User: What shape does this take?
Amino acid sequence: MDPSERPRGEEERMERPDPGVPVELEPGVRLVLAPNPSAMTLWGTNTYLVGTDELAVIDPGPDDPAHLAALLGLIGTARLSAILVTHAHRDHSPLARRLARETGAPVCAFGPPEAGRSPVMARLAAKGGLGGGEGVDEGFRPDRTLGEADRIGVGDLRLGVLHTPGHFAGHLSFALGDAVFSGDHVLGWASTLVSPPDGDVAAFMATSRRLRARRSRVFYPGHGAPVRDPAGRLDWLIAHRRDREAAILDALDDTPRSAADLTARIYTDIDPAMLPAAERNVLAHLVDLVEQKRVRAEPTLSSAARFRRRADT
Assistant: This one.
C-alpha cells in the first residue's frame, strides 16, 4: 500500500469484522476476514463468498489453518464451483491450493506470477537490478487461466472477469452486476503499492481510468471496508498519482537524485518503517518517467540509479 496519504476513511463506515465470522454485504455476497492484520493489510485479507447453494470464493488468502476451517465450515454442503484469485501475492493466493484439495474446485486466475507483464516490465525484469518481488507467491499456478471478458457461472449468478494490471501485472477484478471485487487495485483504506517490475504505474493509471468509466455502485476490495463511492475514490487515486509524479519532477529540478533521496524529500511525515514501501512507489514513477523520456537514469535504469530531469521537459 502507498503509506503516504489516505483518502477520507471508508473504514470508518464499517466496524472491523472478527476473523472467520461472515459479514453479509448484500444478498449472495459475504466477507470473511483472514487473521493476517499488518501495516500493509490493515485488518487482514478480505475473502469473499459469492452465491448461495452454489458458491465461488474470491481471494482465499494466506495459508492459515483457522481461515481454511472457517471457509470450509461456511461452504458446508454447498457446491464450490470456483476459487478465484485476484493476484499471486502471499496474502491472497496461498490458501487456494489447500482449499482446492478439500473441495475439488478449480483455482482460477490470470496465470503464474510473471504473467501479464508489459513489454517494458518484462524487459526490465529480464535485465535485473530493479529489485521488487515483495510478497509474491512464486509457486502459484492456477488450474484455469482467465482473461478479460471471461464469465464465471455461480448458480444463477455470473461474474465478469476484468484484467486490471497496475498493482500486479496479472491482477484480475471480478464484476457482479454493478459491484466489483477490486482486489488490491482499489482499496478501502489507502492507495496501493506499485512496485516494479510486478507493479506498473502506467498500467495502474490506464486501469483506473477504465474502471472509472464503468460507473460501478460499489467496490469490494482486498483489504478494508467496501468503497461506496467508486468514482470518487478513483478520481482521488488518479489525482494522487499525478501529484506524486509532479512532486518527483519538482525534486529533480536542481540535482540528480536516487529513489531513496527522492523518497526522503517527498515523504516527510510518515513512519520511517514505511519508507521502503514508499521508495518502491517512487521507483515505479521513475520507471514510467524514464519511459516517457522526461527523466534520465544514470548510469542505467535500476533501483540504485540516480535520476536527472531532462532539460527539455
User: Anything to note?
Assistant: The chain has two domains: 10-243, 253-309. The mean pLDDT is 94. The first strand starts at residue 23 and ends at 26.
